[in-house]
Design goal:
The chain has about 120 residues and is mainly β. Strands 2, 4, 5, 6, 9, 10 and 11 form a seven-stranded mixed beta sheet that branches. Strands 1-3-8-7 form a four-stranded antiparallel beta sheet, with no helix packed on it.
Length: about 120
């Protein structure tokens, strides 16, 4: 089992920055790809970014490329999502997830999910 606990959400103005954290505990985390997904009201869950724990290789959705940065801290077993130049359309509940699958952009490939943290961007 893997447990994921997100934190760091909040209310910010458009153009601001915000950092999310996901503490990972349980089985050997190095075998996992850690992903961030988001779901806005009335919309489907969408892929945001992912990082392969063992290599640090990163993946990004086109909508956040250049604005968001995903990283992991081995010593703290924590995955971060640094978000900058936030837009109104970034408003959503953000979820951290873990998978051993190569299909990192597919939510149904992930086995473990956190409880989510709300990010609200205001004008």
């Amino acid at each position: 089992q893997v447990q994921l606990v997100e934190s760091g959400g909040g209310l910010v103005q458009a153009g601001a920055s915000l950092s999310l954290s996901c503490v990972v505990s349980g089985r050997t985390v190095s075998r996992y790809v850690m992903g961030w997904f988001r779901q806005a009201p009335g919309k489907e869950r969408e892929f945001v970014a992912a990082v392969r724990w063992s290599t640090g290789y990163t993946y990004y959705a086109d909508s956040v490329k250049g604005r968001f940065t995903i990283s992991r801290d081995n010593a703290k077993n924590t995955v971060y999502l640094q978000m900058s130049s936030l837009k109104l359309e970034d408003t959503a509940v953000y979820y951290c997830a873990a998978t051993v699958s190569a299909r990192v952009e597919r939510g149904d490939a992930y086995d473990y999910w956190g409880q989510g943290t709300q990010v609200t961007v205001s004008s």
